[in-house]
Structure formats: C-alpha cells, structure tokens
Amino acid sequence: VSLDDCEIVSKLLSPIYDVMPPVSGDWVLEVSSPGLERKLSKIDHFAKSIGEMAKVALNDKSQIVGKITSVNGDDILINSDEGNININFNDIKKAKTFIQW
Questions:
Q1: Whole-angstrom Cα distance, residue 13 to residue 16?
Q2: Three-state secondary-structure class, residue 31
Q3: Which of 27, 58, 61, 99 sits at a 20 to 30 Å CA gap from 9?
Q4: Angle 83-87-93 (CA atoms, 0-180°, nearest 5)?
Q5: Residue 75, φ and ψ in degrees, nearest 5
Q6: Nearest to 96 by CA among 37, 10, 24
Q7: How many angstroms separate the CA atoms of 82 and 67, rounded?
Q8: pLDDT string in tens for the chain (101-residue length)
Q9: Residues 54, 55, 60, CA angle at the centre, nearest 5°?
Q10: From the DSSP assignment, how many helices (H) and strands (E) are in the chain?
Q11: Measured distance CA(10)–CA(20) in Å, rounded
C-alpha cells in the first residue's frame, strides 16, 4: 500500500463519513499502511514476501534470520548466514519481515 493509495481512500471516505458518520460523537479518519515491517502469520504472507528479510522464531525457541527465497506448500526456504534453511510453517511460533539498514 503506497502513500498515494492511502490518500485516495481518505479522500473517498471522508466526504461520505462527513454526511453519515461511522460512530456518534467526534472522530478522526486515519488511513495508513501496515508499514515496512509486517507480521507473517499465514503461509500466503511468506509467499508474498519472497525476496524480503525475515526474523522467524521457531517453536523450539531458536531463531532464524535471513531472506525468504521460496515457499513450496507448507515449506519455507530461508537463506541465512548459515546457508539455506528449510522451515515447515507449522514449526513457526512467530515471524515478521524487517528492513536491514
């Protein structure tokens, strides 16, 4: 989602909500993107993030940091400093993308 997309949605909804407010009382319409770093909670999220860096915490309390290189079924391939690591989606406790500055 780009800044331009947020602006378009805001300009579309604001006049409608001025006439028919979504809630009673004062309110503020705020349209934003999820940001550069996103939570990866579905296999589809990993597939859409191929080529991005990710931090993956596994159920066994270990952590893998690297680039998502492919998704095949429930298997996710991460290229880390230790080489290519294949992770089954069911072994992931939590994961998110991140930007390396």
A1: 5
A2: coil
A3: 99
A4: 120
A5: -100, 135
A6: 37
A7: 12
A8: 677 888 898 899 888 888 888 888 787 777 776 677 889 999 999 999 999 999 999 999 999 999 999 999 999 999 999 999 999 999 999 999 998 77
A9: 135
A10: 2, 5
A11: 15
Report the alpha-carbon distance of residue 67 to residue 77 in Å, rounded: 8
User: Which own/partner pairs from 60-64 qualify as long-range (CB within 8 Å, at least 24 positions apart)?
Assistant: 60/91
Residues 6+ apart with CB under 8 A from 86: 75, 76, 77
Q: Which two tokens stand for residue 91?
A: 């072994």
CA 93 to chain centre: 15
* Amino acid letter, residue 43: I
Structure tokens of 50? 């191929």
